Amino acid sequence: MANSKRQLFQKRRMRVRNKLRKVNVGRPRLSVHRSSKNISVQLIDDVNGVTLASASTLEKDLGLVGKNNVEAATKIGATIAERAKKAGVTEAQFDRGGFLFHGRIKALADAAREGGLKI
């Protein structure tokens, strides 16, 4: 029986996460979630199980509610880089989840790099 789209997504997600666990050297994980309408990102310290910083298009003060394009992802990437600096984080592991690295995910990662976050 063929796997469903959701099952394939979960397999990709776990494959990426397991590779990150093997190569991670104590750096926080920059985890991205993308839906059809929004995108959110969290900077997670897996050792202590704590979220250090987060950003989302659902935050009203960013003015991106309902915008699901590359420009919104770019703003979120810049915002998370700024918030990571405030939290004292300069390096992170990029966890794209089961999402392919193109479009909004790539725009977010590039903006975070431009903002000074080493990924």
UniProtKB/TrEMBL annotation:
Gene3D superfamilies: 3.30.420.100. It comes from the Bacteria. The keyword Acetylation does not apply. It holds the Pfam family Ribosomal_L18p. Keywords: Ribonucleoprotein, Ribosomal protein, RNA-binding, rRNA-binding. InterPro entries: Ribosomal_L18, Ribosomal_uL18_bac-type, Ribosomal_uL18_bac/plant/anim. GO terms for cellular component: cytosolic large ribosomal subunit. HAMAP family: Ribosomal_uL18_B. This is one of the proteins that bind and probably mediate the attachment of the 5S RNA into the large ribosomal subunit, where it forms part of the central protuberance. Part of the 50S ribosomal subunit; part of the 5S rRNA/L5/L18/L25 subcomplex. Contacts the 5S and 23S rRNAs. Belongs to the universal ribosomal protein uL18 family. NCBIfam families: L18_bact. This is Large ribosomal subunit protein uL18. It comes from Roseovarius pacificus.
